[in-house]
Amino acid sequence: MFGPEFERKVDRIVARYPEPKAALLPVLWLVQRTRGFVGLDAEAWVAERLGVGAAHVHGVVSFYTMYRQKQLGRYHIQLCTTLSCMLRGSDDLAAHLEKKLGIRPGETTPDGKFSLAKVECLGSCGTAPMLQLNDDYHENLTIDGLDRLLDGLP
Ligand code: FES
Fold first, then answer.
1. What are the structural domains of the chain?
2. Across all residues in the chain, what is the average pLDDT?
3. What does the pLDDT read at residue 65?
4. In what order do the strands lie in the sheet with 75-80?
């Protein structure tokens, strides 16, 4: 789907498992790492490659929120809004983010730089409020700290 090197990586992943369908999660992760999201075309390819139904693959992709179903911004902001973060100001951070970026949760800025999501607990309640920016956690956030973080991104 993404060239011979990608296919070799898929082959190596599949070889680690007793049957191809067991490689579903890591192969989907490889797809996402390769192009930034999964998407219906890749789901169909993965389903055929691993010998599972397309509906099953879509069920997995849509169940696990770490799989992206569409292209997101270069910086994907996932703001935790569950109890600990909410009690420590995530609602203010959310409002500030929406105003600063001019987008609502589920949207991407027109320049493709930022996308925003409100998410459930990311397991860092002791350092609330927090967000995940791509793969990294940013904790004990304040509005000033959030501004410094975002304004410092290339
Ligand atoms: S409530 Fe926000 S990380 Fe747990």
1. 4-63 (1.10.10), 75-151 (3.40.30.10)
2. 96
3. 83
4. 114-119, 75-80, 131-133, 136-138
